[in-house]
Specification:
With about 260 residues, the chain is mainly α. The chain has helices at about 10-35, 35-70, 75-115, 130-230. It is found in: Membrane.
Length: about 260
């Protein structure tokens, strides 16, 4: 059945899963031909990464199946679930193969660790004398002690690196905390400054209104003064205190001859 007729998303995910499963099949066939332990380890890492990606895609496939389940016929949903189970079964078979190869590789590496380095001619225990057996055992013990000592050094170095990393992370965390606090202070200062600017703007606007009104009053007074000076007999303009012309003296009746 063509999955594109059910969902384009399902068809795309199915194609990606099929491609990864083919890659896993070819990868394990290639792994069987590899003899070097380091190359086997790298190949297993690549295959493990592909299996993780395949597992993620199968989960996406399952979610998409559940999303379109209500729109499909029962036989279509059954087919999709069977396909999902088939994918899971095939992936699990590769997971089992990976575990087998990993166990075999680990045993081989453990055997190489305890094997005497640089010994080309190994004497059989049956042909060794007691002294040779003791010497050989002592050499193996010394080599084992050296390997353990190297492992201890690696562990100590790892602990040291971990301690330094933890200290660096702690310092970075404290620095980030200080930066956040400084940003909060800056934000508060910006808000306060913005509020102050608004208040100043309102005050300036008020002052401008007052200055404008005073200017208009002064101009009105000046205009009245000018008119009064030019035409002092103009009755439409009331006298301004201090600027009115002197009143004529009234003559008393008894002063008239």
């Amino acid at each position: 059945m063509d999955l594109s007729s059910v969902s384009e998303e399902l068809a795309e995910i199915d194609g990606q899963i099929s491609e990864i499963l083919r890659s896993l099949s070819n990868g394990f066939q290639k792994l069987q031909k590899i003899k070097d332990a380091n190359r086997q380890s790298r190949q297993l890492e690549e295959l493990t990464e592909k299996m993780r990606e395949c597992k993620r895609l199968i989960k996406e496939f399952d979610r998409e199946v559940k999303d379109v389940e209500s729109r499909n016929r029962p036989d279509v949903n059954r087919m999709l679930n069977e396909k999902k189970q088939s994918m899971i079964k095939e992936l699990n078979s590769y997971v089992a193969l990976k575990k087998q190869y990993a166990s075999s590789l680990e045993n081989k590496q453990r055997a190489d660790l305890y094997e005497g380095p640089g010994e080309e001619n190994v004497l059989l225990a049956s042909s060794m004398t007691n002294q040779e057996l003791m010497d050989h055992g002592n050499r193996m013990m010394d080599e084992t002690d050296q390997a353990i000592e190297r492992s201890k050094q690696i562990v100590e170095q790892t602990i040291g690196v971990g301690t330094e990393t933890a200290a660096a992370l702690k310092a970075q965390t404290e620095q980030m905390s200080r930066i956040v606090n400084e940003l909060d202070s800056i934000n508060f200062s910006i808000k306060k400054a913005s509020k102050l600017v608004k208040e100043i703007g309102r005050q300036v606007a008020t002052d401008r209104c007052i200055v404008t009104m005073l200017f208009l009053i002064v101009m009105g007074v000046v205009a009245i003064i000018v008119v009064k000076i030019v035409n002092p007999n103009n009755k439409d303009i009331q006298d301004i205190p201090g600027l009115a012309p002197p009143a004529l003296r009234r003559k008393l009746l008894w002063n008239e001859d």
